[in-house]
TrEMBL record:
Residues 291-365 form the Transglutaminase-like domain. Residues 78-231 form the DUF3857 domain. This is Transglutaminase-like superfamily protein.
Length: 666
């Protein structure tokens, strides 16, 4: 993680949609079911799957999926029953964590969940009730959810094959399936069938995989098959995009979005969301009164926005309560306002309601907070988060409104995430930039590209003044200011830490650049307004910062902070994630020890590409060694084929960060 990366991990997603069809390691089932009580023999399909030889390409995997088949049987109302059959061979001890199961909520029903194993010695085993484990939904720590998980843990070892079959009545409002065809372990054979009633059509879209045409195995009953899907293993690939953005998948629609044309499909999905949330943002009298008080005397459009935004960000606690469709649908604005808590859908709902009172139009925007997961070419409800698009009136021009997109109708929209309580309105968290979302605006719904902001919208400025002693000790102070998402990350760090944790964390962070450092004092200055820079001031002492070489003294002018990203020279096929656009500026001055002058300085550095630039220079005046550098990142991701250029850039930056000046005695 570079210095410009996120300082803390925050859960901002709210399970806006829990995706269907998870392939391995997850599983979830229900009341009054048979879990291994019926003494059923291993089914023939399972016996056949267990005979599948382990392919050579899976020899280093922890496990391999030999067979995975889904059948979605859709009734006349569009509700589906999903059957899954899966067989997994354990290849290494750590592969025993690869298991299967089923999830359910109050409006779903698991008809059956059976599990068996062919043990390594060839003996069959049927799961007992004690092999099943039921758990609540713990994916978000601040959550109350009725969704349950039931996984099976069979007594298997290396060489065993796990065999599972589930049959589940799905939610009545879900009329699509997301087939996740790639996993962290390889898959030998997988299939999806969608059995539709007469007269019902479907549409399909593929992500990171060439489109495969189905076979009609019966009237309006469609089957897709894929063989030999490699694992997507990113563990040894530095600076990679999100796993879920790279994994191959396919979505099938059989509801209103089962129409021709990608734009039409997105429009149908947005219209469905619009209808789902249509009565949710209705302002109550209490909301009207509070909003009118907040915006009273506001001099301009931005002032109204910022007052409402900071109220929702700071006064409405983030908390998730889901039961059935409430995992998709927000609570009513009046309830959110009265209870003073809600998830991302709820915060967005209250934001829209309060903006309506102010005469400002705003819309729901379902997204995923992992860049690249939502694909403009794959219309789907797949996502985990909700934000808003605020319509900017004609004639309003304000430099503080940075995260602006233009819709197909020519209207401008400010994209804002009210769940992120540390990023000012007008800006946008870095992890959402460069993604896609659905502008849910009824018949005008569309997929929109979330903006990638200019470097000036994010970053830090550090100024350091130090004194170097003849014994190599460095003493001094650093004053820094942080804006945009970088400042937001620091605010989050302060929000979730105490004084000791802050000292320990920052001393450890500085020690990455300055070994044996002691943080003598530190102070954070956090303005109440989120659009003001957050400041951090500290003093430090570092023994043996400079090193002797005979009569010479070697000192590194770049004292603290590193802007390099993790890299390696292995050929890669996935893009390079640059984390965030932004600017990082450093000015460090080191007062030389008595009796020393500069004998040699590192060379000036000038690097300019379309994805980043880096300039560094060195100078000496009045026995003060001065180091200045400016680093700008202009893109959030570059393709894999630019790896050689990226490596050269990072290597040169790293060399500059390590470069030393030579001091000699007068």
């Amino acid at each position: 993680m570079s210095w410009r990366g996120r300082l803390v991990g925050m859960v901002l997603g709210c399970r806006w949609l829990i995706s269907a069809t998870m392939l391995v390691a997850l599983a979830w089932p229900a009341q009054g079911l048979i879990f291994g009580r019926s003494k059923l023999p291993v089914p023939q399909w399972g016996l056949d799957a267990a005979k599948t030889p382990t392919p050579a390409y899976a020899k280093n995997a922890s496990a391999v999926i030999l067979y995975d088949e889904y059948i979605e049987t859709v009734d006349g109302a569009g509700r589906a029953v999903e059957r899954e059959r899966e067989a997994i061979r354990i290849l290494q001890p750590q592969g025993r964590g690869s298991t299967c199961g089923v999830s359910y909520d109050v409006d779903e029903k698991v008809n059956h969940f059976h599990a068996w194993a062919i043990l390594a010695d060839g003996r069959p085993y049927e799961a007992e009730e004690s092999d099943f484990r039921e758990e609540g939904d713990t994916g978000v720590p601040v959550m109350l959810s009725t969704r349950k998980e039931r996984v099976v843990h069979l007594p298997v070892d290396v060489g065993s094959v796990e065999i599972c079959e589930t049959d589940e009545l799905l939610e009545p409002y879900r009329q699509e399936t997301n087939w996740h065809i790639q996993n962290e372990i390889p898959v030998v054979f997988e299939a999806l069938e969608v059995d539709l009633p007469p007269g019902r059509s479907y549409s399909m879209a593929w992500h990171r995989h060439a489109a495969e045409q189905p076979v009609e195995v019966a009237a309006n009953h469609w089957r897709w098959e894929i063989k030999d899907m490699p694992a997507l293993d990113l563990r040894d690939i530095p600076s990679h995009p999100e796993w879920a953005a790279l994994a191959a998948r396919m979505s099938v629609q059989w509801g209103d979005a089962a129409v021709a044309g990608t734009e039409n499909q997105w429009r149908a999905i947005g219209a469905w969301v619009t209808q789902l949330e249509s009565d949710r943002p209705t302002p109550s009298p209490e909301i009207v009164s509070t909003t009118e008080t907040l915006i009273s005397g506001a001099p301009d459009f931005y002032a109204k926005l910022s007052r409402i935004a900071e109220y929702v960000q700071q006064d409405i606690r983030y908390f998730v309560v889901t039961r059935g469709i409430s995992g998709l649908q927000a609570n009513h604005a009046a309830d959110i306002f009265r209870n003073r808590y809600g998830d991302c859908k709820d915060k967005t709902t209250l934001m829209i309601a309060m903006l309506r009172v102010a005469g400002i139009s705003a819309f729901y925007v379902p997204v995923d907070d992992r860049r690249g997961v939502v694909d403009a070419e794959e219309p789907s409800l797949l996502g985990n988060h909700m934000i808003t698009a605020i319509e900017i009136p004609s004639g309003v021009e304000d430099a503080r409104l940075l995260a602006v997109v233009k819709g197909e109708n020519g209207k401008r929209y400010l994209i804002f995430d009210p769940t992120n309580q540390h990023t000012a309105i007008g800006n946008l968290p870095s992890y959402e930039q460069g993604s896609y979302g659905t502008l849910a605006a009824g018949a005008a719904s569309q997929v929109i590209a979330l903006p990638v902001l200019a470097p000036e919208a994010n970053g830090s400025e550090r100024k350091g003044e130090f004194s170097l002693l003849a014994d190599g000790t460095l003493e001094g102070k650093v004053d820094s200011s942080h804006v945009g998402p970088t400042g937001g990350d620091l605010r989050a760090f302060l929000n979730f830490s105490d004084e000791k944790e802050r000292r320990d964390a920052w001393e450890h962070r500085i020690a990455e650049s300055v070994p044996d450092v002691v943080l003598d004092s530190f102070e954070f200055v956090q303005p109440a307004s989120l659009d003001k820079p957050l400041e951090f001031h500290y003093t430090l002492t570092a023994r043996q910062y400079a090193h002797t070489a005979g009569t010479l003294l070697l000192v590194r002018p770049r004292v603290v902070g590193s802007d390099t990203l993790p890299v390696d020279t292995k050929a890669r096929t996935v893009g390079i994630d640059l984390e965030a656009t932004g600017h990082w500026r450093d000015v460090y001055e080191i007062h030389l020890p008595e009796g020393y002058v500069v004998d040699d300085l590192p060379d000036e550095v000038k690097l300019d590409t379309d994805f980043a630039s880096y300039h560094a220079r060195y100078s000496v005046k009045d026995k003060v060694l001065r180091y200045e550098r400016e680093y700008e990142v202009k893109k959030v991701e570059i393709p894999a084929e630019r790896q050689p250029e990226f490596l050269r850039f990072e290597s040169r930056v790293g060399s500059d960060e390590r470069a030393t000046a030579v001091l000699k005695k007068e």
